[in-house]
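Quick review question:
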């Protein structure tokens, strides 16, 4: 009897030295006796994606991380409703046909689910408005999650444009009105652990919640400076676990 080929999962991004998913999933497969493997697909250009799929006919699905959460969408045949609304994808399911060349790619976003589950217990009744640092793929998921939780959001970037304020616009009034601050940029991620978004930390108070989606290091410079001002701080590790669980459910959902 021929054994079915080992199922393969993976993550695409560049660089991938910080990736959490391979460790999480390979440990899951080992402890639960699942005949599968999770691999790194570090591609310097999103155009290399189709080659990765062609070279790995047992690839069932993959995660997407920086900088491809938006770029990957041009290669997808279908989008889940939440992913379409967010405008970014971090989970792709490969729906195979009869041959290796017969497949469809469907994109999802599980980041916002993991984020919601992580931040919800930290919010207080007075948390009504939030600043989101960054405008990339992660910011879209965070924005969706905060809106679902009933918060009004404002995007912050180094460059001003419609619907986006700059760090120079973070006046005492703005900081006082926005008690939740979420960093969705890669600034401060390992190995650049001394870097930090230019937030006016002198205006941060014990009433603020400063959430960093980065999980390596566990306490970023952003979190350290906020904590010194008495703010509540939290990193993105729980968010990662939550999105990973959601990704596994997506890949194993026979409905698609």
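Suggested answer, residue by residue:
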């Amino acid at each position: 009897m021929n054994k079915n080929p080992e199922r393969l999962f993976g993550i695409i991004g560049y660089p991938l030295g910080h990736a959490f998913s391979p460790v999480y999933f390979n440990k899951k497969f080992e402890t639960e006796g699942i005949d599968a493997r999770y691999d790194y697909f570090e591609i310097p250009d999103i155009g290399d994606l189709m080659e990765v799929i062609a070279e790995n006919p047992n690839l069932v699905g993959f995660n997407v991380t920086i900088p491809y959460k938006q770029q990957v969408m041009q290669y997808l045949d279908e989008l889940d409703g939440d992913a379409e609304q967010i405008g970014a994808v971090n989970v792709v399911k490969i729906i195979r046909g009869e041959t290796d060349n017969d497949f469809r790619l469907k994109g999802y976003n599980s980041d916002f689910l993991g984020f919601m589950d992580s931040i919800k217990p930290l919010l207080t009744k007075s948390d009504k408005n939030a600043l989101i640092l960054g405008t990339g793929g992660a910011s879209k998921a965070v924005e969706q999650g905060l809106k679902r939780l009933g918060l009004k959001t404002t995007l912050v970037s180094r460059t001003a444009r419609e619907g986006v304020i700059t760090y120079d616009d973070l006046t005492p009034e703005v900081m006082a009105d926005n008690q939740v601050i979420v960093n969705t940029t890669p600034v401060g991620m390992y190995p650049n652990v001394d870097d930090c978004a230019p937030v006016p930390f002198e205006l941060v108070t014990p009433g603020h919640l400063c959430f960093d989606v980065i999980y390596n290091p566990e306490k970023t410079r952003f979190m350290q400076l906020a904590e010194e001002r008495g703010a509540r701080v939290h990193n993105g590790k729980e968010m990662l676990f939550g999105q990973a669980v959601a990704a596994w459910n997506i890949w194993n959902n026979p409905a698609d």
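Why it works: The longest strand covers residues 7-13. The chain is about 30% helix and 25% strand.
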